[in-house]
């Protein structure tokens, strides 16, 4: 949440920063701002709303400078407004700060600054406290890094901050504590940012900053210091994504582009883990057969869409490997004193690898002795770095707030993990394994074909877009997909949608069925097909409008449905990889019909780095 960019170097800082902020808008878009140092004075421009508002405010002003910081905000303390927008400055405007995260003791610090130093606050943010603290320490310190260090000694919470000072103009000082931060290494120009896409256009050599570290960035150097202020040597991380990966490439929205990238993401994720004979390669993963035999339980912990991938993970791991699996939302996990010990395998799933709830749950599990395996998209992210082993999803950068290709690649990893465990533990046969791998390898092709027929879903969305509430139902794996379909629809179209296991309807929720109520009924599980048809009949009898999703060949459902979307035929366990796609597309086209901001839905941010 919140995106930060800092630049010091040869070019005009404003241009680099605005460009970088545009790539980080997925992290928050309540307001945007920039601070640059011109003739040893700090100039600030900030505006509520997206980056385009900031650009309009700046207009023709060149704001020519070689040092600056910028921010795109997802509001926590104080409503989205010009005054609450970052950067924040101290009383005499000699220090400016941008911040991602939350300063938990800000109220206490604010009171101290007001009572003991007569500080006058302009905004309602926690961040302004940091600007005043750094400003006060600057009076007695030799350098900006000393002042920032002193300020951080007083702060509690999670943050990534970047500061500039008028009297130390060719320097940025940044600190990372439980919020993402990277530094980009250029030639005569160096960078700071929350995430890689901000810098892709300029640099491919990145330093991943660790928790508790401070970075001092000048045009010629990037120096990293640990919590004890000892300089640390860090390997350069070479980014392999190209600039196009973070561009729309002709698609109207990132979400649509990312839906269409799913065949490639799934096949890349498979290829990275399978050798030419279809055997799973566990390169870089140290789990042995003995480890697998030793685990008495698995926890899968994640948030939102990643949690929904975990639900499918539970079903297939239990089925193939015969180990009990619990799935939990990360924000609940660590507060319920979970039964974790050395015989527990903890699987964290996260696209960004920076979701604070997931990270905190992971730390709790580790503290209690669990072995941690993570399924992560962003290489080098916090979740990846803090795990014992990492299974990367090779989805490429996911920019739209609504997660699509990250989900299907997470599912792909879940299948590989379940198959690997099953084979190693002897709970599935080689024959079953071989056939399943073949079936998985066919999915990208089937999906590719399916994506040629999106017109059908667009047409349905044009008819059904104005419903006030929508239900998603399914049984078995289809119920997991219902949760994901419902989340997708509500987050980008703002329709009140609700998912429930179809068999559970009659225990209460069916009371809400009225003539015309839209129900998306997933019926892709052959083993549960007839039971699902009965559930559809029950709601149909109450007048519901039923849009079903079924496998090609299962036409009987047409009798009970108003419309049917057919996905290519596949085995039951794999159906989620295909059935989720029409739901993603339906949400997309409904949101488009309703004129919603698809890539940046209201109140949301891509990377949720606050609790
Ligand atoms: O980066 P993560 O996978 O950890 O993010 C978890 C959720 O915040 C994320 O999946 C969220 O639910 C998406 N907006 C859903 O589309």
Annotate the secondary structure layout.
Layout: E1 3-8, H1 13-24, E2 31-38, E3 41-48, H2 51-58, E4 67-73, E5 88-89, E6 95-103, H3 106-117, H4 127-138, H5 144-154, E7 157-165, E8 172-177, E9 182-185, E10 190-193, E11 205-208, E12 214-217, E13 222-225, E14 231-232, E15 237-238, H6 254-260, H7 262-273, H8 289-294, E16 297-302, H9 304-321, E17 325-329, H10 330-333, E18 344-350, H11 356-367, E19 371-376, H12 382-386, E20 389-392, H13 405-425, H14 430-450, H15 455-464, E21 469-474, H16 477-493, E22 496-501, E23 518-523, H17 529-540, E24 545-551, E25 563-567, H18 575-593
Parallel strand pairs: 16-17, 16-18, 18-19, 19-20, 21-22, 21-23, 23-24, 24-25
Antiparallel strand pairs: 1-4, 1-10, 2-3, 2-4, 5-6, 6-7, 7-8, 8-12, 9-10, 9-11, 11-15, 12-13, 13-14
Helix pairs in contact: 3-4, 4-5, 7-13, 7-14, 9-13, 9-16, 13-14, 15-18, 16-18
CATH structural class of the largest domain: Alpha Beta
Tally the helices: what do you get?
18
User: What is the annotated CATH architecture of the largest domain?
Assistant: 4-Layer Sandwich
Q: Please state the average pLDDT score.
A: 94
Named CATH topology of the largest domain: Glutamine Phosphoribosylpyrophosphate, subunit 1, domain 1
Structural class: alpha/beta
Largest sheet: 8 strands, antiparallel
Give the helix proportion (percent range).
25-40%
* Strand composition percent: 15-25%
Count the strands? 25
């Amino acid at each position: 949440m919140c995106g930060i960019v800092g630049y010091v170097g040869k070019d005009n800082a404003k241009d680099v920063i605005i460009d970088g902020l545009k790539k980080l808008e997925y992290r928050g878009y309540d307001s945007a701002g920039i601070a640059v140092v011109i003739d040893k004075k700090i100039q600030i421009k900030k505006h509520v709303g997206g980056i385009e508002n900031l650009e309009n405010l700046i207009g023709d002003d060149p704001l020519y400078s070689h040092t600056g910081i910028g921010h795109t905000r997802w509001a926590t303390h104080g409503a989205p407004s010009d005054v609450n927008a970052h950067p924040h400055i101290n009383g005499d405007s000699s220090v400016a700060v941008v911040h991602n995260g939350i300063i938990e003791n800000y109220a206490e610090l604010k009171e101290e600054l007001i009572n003991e130093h007569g500080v006058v606050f302009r905004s309602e943010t926690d961040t302004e406290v940091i600007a005043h603290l750094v400003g006060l320490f600057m009076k007695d310190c030799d350098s900006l890094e000393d002042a920032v260090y002193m300020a951080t000694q007083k702060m509690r919470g999670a943050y990534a901050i970047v500061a500039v000072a008028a009297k130390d103009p060719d320097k940025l000082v940044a600190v990372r504590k439980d919020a993402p931060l990277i530094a980009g290494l250029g030639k005569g120009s160096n960078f700071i940012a929350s995430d890689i896409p901000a810098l892709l256009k300029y640099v491919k050599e990145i330093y991943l900053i660790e928790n508790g570290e401070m970075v001092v960035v000048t045009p010629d150097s990037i120096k990293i210091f640990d919590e004890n202020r000892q300089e640390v040597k860090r390997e350069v991380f070479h980014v392999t994504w190209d600039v196009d990966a973070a561009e729309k490439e002709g698609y109207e929205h990132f979400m649509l582009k990312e839906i269409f990238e799913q065949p490639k993401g799934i096949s890349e994720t498979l290829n990275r883990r399978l050798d030419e004979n279809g055997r799973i390669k566990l390169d870089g993963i140290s789990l042995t057969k003995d480890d697998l035999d030793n685990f008495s339980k698995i926890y899968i912990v994640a948030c939102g869409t990643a949690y929904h991938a975990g639900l499918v993970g539970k079903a297939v791991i239990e089925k193939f490997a015969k180990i009990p699996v619990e799935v939990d939302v990360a924000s609940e996990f660590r507060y319920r004193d979970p039964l974790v010990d050395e015989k527990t395998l903890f699987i964290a799933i996260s696209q960004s690898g920076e979701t604070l709830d997931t990270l905190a749950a992971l730390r709790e599990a580790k503290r209690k002795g669990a072995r941690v395996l993570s399924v992560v998209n962003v290489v080098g992210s916090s979740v990846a770095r803090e795990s014992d082993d990492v299974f990367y999803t090779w989805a490429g950068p996911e920019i739209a707030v609504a997660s699509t290709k990250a989900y299907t690649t997470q599912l792909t990893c879940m299948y590989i993990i379940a198959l690997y465990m099953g084979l190693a533990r002897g709970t599935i046969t080689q024959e079953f394994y071989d056939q399943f791998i073949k079936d998985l390898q066919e999915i990208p092709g089937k999906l590719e074909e399916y994506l040629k027929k999106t017109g059908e879903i667009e047409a349905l969305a044009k008819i059904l877009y104005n419903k006030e509430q929508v239900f998603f139902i399914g049984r078995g794996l289809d119920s997991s997909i219902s949760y994901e379909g419902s989340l997708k629809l509500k987050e980008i179209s703002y329709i009140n949608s609700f998912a429930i296991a179809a068999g559970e309807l009659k225990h209460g929720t069916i009371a809400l069925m009225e003539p015309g109520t839209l129900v998306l009924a997933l019926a892709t599980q052959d083993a549960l097909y007839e039971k699902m048809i009965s559930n559809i009949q029950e709601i149909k009898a109450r007048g519901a409008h039923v849009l079903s999703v079924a496998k090609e060949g299962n036409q009987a459902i047409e009798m009970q449905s108003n419309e049917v979307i057919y996905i290519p035929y596949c085995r039951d366990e794999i159906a989620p990889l295909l059935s989720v796609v029409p739901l993603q597309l339906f949400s997309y086209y409904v949101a488009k019909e309703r004129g919603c901001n698809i890539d940046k839905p209201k109140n949301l941010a891509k990377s949720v780095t606050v609790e």
